[in-house]
Amino acid sequence: MVCYSGEHSSSFMASGKDKKQSQQPELAADILIPYLTNDVALNCLARVPRWHHIILSQVSRPIRSLLFSHQFYTARSILNCTHDLLYIRVGSYSAWPATWFYIQQKPDPSLTRNGALIRVPQQPLHIESSAYAAVGYKIYVLGGFVDGEFSSHVWILDCRFHTWERGPNMKMARCGASAAVLGGKIYVAGGGGGPSSSHGGTHWVESFDPDIGVWEAVPCPDGVRNKWVSDCAIVGGGVCIWVGQTGFKFDPKTNVWEAFENELQSGWNGQNCVVNGVLYCYDSCGRFKGFDEVNGRWKEVNGVVKDLPAYMSGARMVSLEGKLVVVWGESDLNGVFEHFQKKRMELQWAEIEVKKDGNGDFWGKVYWWGNIEIPDWILGRCPLFYHCLSVSI
């Protein structure tokens, strides 16, 4: 694979050249923490939360080198000290292409927790209308529209070091496809029909196993093949695909497809996430809803309306450390120019814990709600918030 890296806007992130020169600390020569063996020091440093790494990197050169090493992230994984980090994609109407950022958390013991956008290197090839999926510490950019054609390219962002690499191409060129992750595998559906597509409906649904790096066709029924797919999500251990007003569910264990026989296909607007095995959505009326698989019904999440705005423009949802996190901000022309007259763009996020009571009803509690600081260079460029993913680092 070909790797790409770029200069990070934060002092914490080194440029691609610096990363190549950075080496793991020599345990016999570079002392991480005085009076401690480097094995013990590594065990301690690996437990430091991610949001403190910027400060930690400034302590010494050996520690900074360690933070950019595979050794460090392997230790965090073994010690089960990884954290979920939010990555969002922000662009503009015309001034600059959409770019990935991560949200640098600022822990606050109060109910308000602010964050700041930190830019990551731009993807080497500018592609729009891609599908996106996160597996572990990697973000996968699937297909899209480039140079007037649909693309089968796969680009991978390694969020540990913020480097890009090419992944194995999909079997079919796609634009505007939908994707979901189940059991560590990526499932992508729809978005075909471009001039570069040579397989047609044979590979309308594909799966990718990152461990072996191979795309495989998922045979699908006529109701799915060559149809426009509006969304894809994981429900009840299966891959659910929405085709117009109809829904289909694929069980990877049995390779069996079935049409929905409940309300799962209704009340849907495409904004969804799965938290602790439950599918949630945010509807056009500004309500959070969870899907009750036992009764086959969507139910409103009670208890959150009083603590959040009546309507959150451009809301995106994601699972973060077992909680439901919603990020929202301006996503259309309504009110945008009034914000720019004030030289600011509003982007906020909130963490909600949702539980199910004995009657099968959903109840939510807002743990915190804060602002996300927007870098000055973005202001005045009509920024738009597009996507949000959770990555484990």
From TrEMBL:
<dbReference type="InterPro" id="IPR015915">
    <property type="entry name" value="Kelch-typ_b-propeller"/>
</dbReference>
<protein>
    <recommendedName>
        <fullName>FKB95-like N-terminal Kelch domain-containing protein</fullName>
    </recommendedName>
</protein>
<dbReference type="InterPro" id="IPR006652">
    <property type="entry name" value="Kelch_1"/>
</dbReference>
<feature type="domain" description="FKB95-like N-terminal Kelch">
    <location>
        <begin position="100"/>
        <end position="370"/>
    </location>
</feature>
<dbReference type="InterPro" id="IPR050354">
    <property type="entry name" value="F-box/kelch-repeat_ARATH"/>
</dbReference>
<dbReference type="Pfam" id="PF25210">
    <property type="entry name" value="Kelch_FKB95"/>
</dbReference>
<dbReference type="InterPro" id="IPR057499">
    <property type="entry name" value="Kelch_FKB95"/>
</dbReference>
